[in-house]
Amino acid sequence: MPLVREIDYGTPASKAEATVALTIDGQAVTVPAGTSVMRAAQEMGTTIPRLCATDMMDAFGSCRLCLVEIEGRAGAPASCTTPVAEGMVVHTQTPKLAKLRKGVMELYISDHPLDCLTCAANGDCELQDMAGAVGLREVRYGYQGENHLDEAKDESNPYFTYDPSKCIVCSRCVRACDEVQGTFALTIAGRGFASRVSASQSEPFLDSECVSCGACVQACPTATLTEKSVIEIGTPEHSVITTCAYCGVGCAFKAEMRGEELVRMVPYKDGAANHGHSCVKGRFAWGYAAHKERILNPMIRASTAEPWREVSWEEAIAHTAAEFKRIQAKYGRQAVGGVTSSRCTNEETFLVQKLIRAGFGNNNVDTCARVCHSPTGYGLKTTFGTSAGTQDFDTVEHVDVAVIIGANPTDAHPVFASRLKQQLRPREEGGGGARLIVIDPRRTELVRTPHVHADHHLALRPGTNVAVLTAMAHVIVTEGLADEAFVRERCDWDEYRDWAAFVAEPRHSPEATEPLTGVPADELRAAARLYATGGNAAIYYGLGVTEHSQGSTAVIAIANLAMATGNIGKPGVGVNPLRGQNNVQGSCDMGSFPHELSGYRHVADDTARTMFEELWGVDIDPEPGMRINNMLDAAVEGAFKGMYIQGEDIMQSDPNTSHVAAGLEAMECVVVQDLFLSETAAYAHVFLPGSTFLEKNGTFTNAERRIQLVRKAMAPKNGYEDWEVTQLLSNALGYPMAYGHPAEIMDEIARLTPTFAGVSFDLLEKVGSVQWPCNQVQPTGTPVMHMAGFVRGRGKFVVTEYIPTDEKTGPRFPLLLTTGRILSQYNVGAQTRRTANVVWHDEDVLEIHPHDAEVRGVRDGDWVKLQSRAGATTLRAQITDRVSPGVVYTTFHHPATQANVVTTDYSDWATNCPEYKVTAVQVAVSNGPSEWQERYGDFVTRSRRIAEEPKVLEPKILEPGE
Ligand code: SF4
Ligand code: SF4
Ligand code: SF4
Ligand code: FES
Question: Ligand 1, residues 170, 174, 186: which to mutate, most atoms within 8 A of Cβ?
Fold first, then answer.
């Protein structure tokens, strides 16, 4: 489609319900009260010239270009800062206004380099547009006087440049950083002529507090802040609306292109999850798609000791099908299985599980949600009846108290974090004035960030979530703060009474649990009171809740709290899992678990299974299949021999790496479909090149259950979209598939899945996005769930007995390791490590408290050995009091560290979600890589060879657009 340019209304929409009627240029117009004159004019199609105004932030009134005349008022007020009034008569274009505007523009242009023809923003510059709009044809003032034309550029940020010679000091960048992003990294330093944009304390952007979200670049009306890709490639000429392939926020973007080359990703203002905002990953970290290490040809080999051999797609598919058939003939139907990808589309995921259930004839399918949010599915289904979050992101505007537990949204869900910060800022600063409770062992950024601070930070010991949540319930019940009317109306009263009696036991009081949790009793009591009595209270949680041996219990405990206080079933409340990967909600919805068909129906459910059997023409095993860990265990024992892994890197993402390696090594045919030779691919026998999100059509479902289109911006460099490869494999296995487009796969999903019954590509094209359930009852989706009643009928309270993990500290392993993510890298880092994001994080480091460092003789930057009962790795130490004494923390983005060598086999009792967040460890100064790191390094170097290539793989270098 041609380049999409959203209308800029100049100022944000007013939320008032009352309306005001006025006349602009002789036309009657009615708008909500509080609307600016500028916006009212734009609503009727008249663009008033402007430079400092944009509808992403509040009016500022500095440029004086948007002047209008209002009958009965003296002078020429700025239309951006003047609200409409009943009966107002406005003129936007008069000779007097034209003269004033020309004068203003002349001053701007007299200090602006007139290099429009060679400027990167030529044709995409508001200053240029406004000069034309006001009819400026000559400038009377020359460059003889003082000017800024020779000021040095700041090129420090890898993705955008700051050229102060072009700055008109409109403050749009500063306000974007404050109001949209919430980082407050920019100011206007100096006064009058000397004023200029300053990052932090006049530092280069890279060294400042800037988190490279790009909001200022987007807001800048000139070429002062410009994407380097635009400077290098040129301005884009068409765009494709699509969805970010990184995290579960699900930001919509315009992929702006020149031919088949991507020029930039610009957040889409009509995106329902992001409303025009983005983070550094979605906005800038897309270079991996054309990285030289991307593999474009299929490859096979008989064993991992051999180098890879490039083959045709025909040979690769025929070989893979023959191998799976051979294995099943020799070892039985259950000897093979597969893993679907939460990075791939719903349609691709649905097809992989279909291939396994119908083509392999078993239920041995699992997905990465096993290792992240499977407890969410279990816990919320048990209590509410649906395995998903209850709200949409927009609901945050109604939140009075936010509880963030086991989540670090500023790093892992940045665009949601920006919206949350807006709501948390004081009312007098234009924020929503909401209060904040953070429950996390680390002092995450939200605990104290510019203009936002947590009212309570409960820095609990890792592994004690259930004890803390139950203690909060104790306070609520024993102090009479429960909403019993809500509970009587909506929940099972007898179960509530059992639960209330349980939590009220003295052993659950904050005082009794303080020695265990490390949370001061009075702080916990205050937090519980605030949650129960502070108005609309919403809980947002992440993997710090689920990745524990009691992950499912903690999710249930959260649901109990929400029901007990009536914080469910309306805007501004609820239980909101912040899902990790872009399509982890979708991969679960699509039937990726061994016990569930799409829509979370158990394979033993005869009615559901029969629907699939009839449409697919096969018998489906009514017994659940194996989970990932079961498959690996069975492989080690010799009973499981072949695995089809689409887009997951279980070697890096799953716990106890040596055990994963042993399982993969024991198999006869490991098939990896991916973009790069991942860590898992080092153990593979077949490599099927994958396609990026820019190269395919389909849908992703974000953390709000929002289904959004992913649109193809360029042809797949490897030749096929991922769903086409699965289809080829299924056909070669003898189970025919003949889809012509992912829309047909979605039609099948809708036929088989009641919560998706109304979803189609046509509907998504028409309305932009929908949140499931989307069916006859809710034809355009369901933003907030459980409004009239719980999906399961009555809400179910479940007793949450705290059972400490078996992973214990002791003299050998006295510290607790917990793991997480940082903003610039994503998950196993396969994509972000292959972008300029490495300038922010090029290695995983171990955060350690100064006290723990001192007693071990560890200095900042030292190499340290991190040892657990499962294994050891080495990495650099970073001394910080962000972690409490006794707790250490690291990320798992870099394979050189392989942080999961250290994590253990302990897992959630209900779902086997691994206990990544609690590992007993010891830390000591190290003088070299661990034994595992040395062995593994040698192995992957050998394993990545490609025949004809003497050493490590140096794959074909892709030219842009090739
Ligand atoms: S950098 Fe751009 S947005 Fe910021 S003050 Fe200068 S011209 Fe305005
Ligand atoms: S890129 Fe984002 S964080 Fe950085 S200065 Fe601009 S708006 Fe602020
Ligand atoms: S917040 Fe998530 S979805 Fe949005 S741009 Fe960043 S990574 Fe992409
Ligand atoms: S746009 Fe109104 S004063 Fe700048």
Answer: 170
CATH classification of the domain holding 504: 3.40.228.10
Evaluate if pTM is beyond 0.70.
yes
Query: Which residue is closest in CA terms to ligand 1's atom 3?
Result: 220
Contact 406, 446 (CB under 8 A): no
pLDDT band at 126 (very low <50, low <70, confident <90, very high): confident
Count of domains observed in the chain = 5
Check if 218 has its Cβ closer than 6 Å to any atom of ligand 1. Answer: no
- Regarding whether 361 and 272 lie in a shared domain, the answer is no
Residue 144 in this model has a pLDDT that exceeds 70? no
Long-range contacts: 232-235, Cβ < 8 Å, 24+? 233/258, 233/261, 233/263, 233/960, 234/120, 234/258, 234/263, 235/120, 235/121, 235/122, 235/123, 235/124, 235/263
Cα 169 to averaged position of ligand 1 atoms, centre (Å): 5
Q: Are residues 610 and 569 in the same domain?
A: no
| Exposure string over 422-437, b if 16+ CB within 10 A, otherwise e | bbbbeeeeebbebbbb
Task: For residues 753 and 589, give the distance between their C-alpha atoms in angstroms, rounded to a whole number.
Answer: 9
Give residue-wise pLDDT tens across range 424-466: 999 988 899 999 999 999 899 999 988 899 999 999 998 899 9
Quick check: 945 pLDDT over 80?
yes
| Å from CA of 847 to ligand 3 middle | 25
Range of the structural domain that residue 365 is part of = 299-372+585-693+716-741
Q: Is 759 in the pocket of ligand 1 (CB under 6 A)?
A: no
Cα-to-centroid distance, 25 and ligand 4 (Å): 19
User: Whose CA is closest to atom 5 on ligand 3?
Assistant: 282
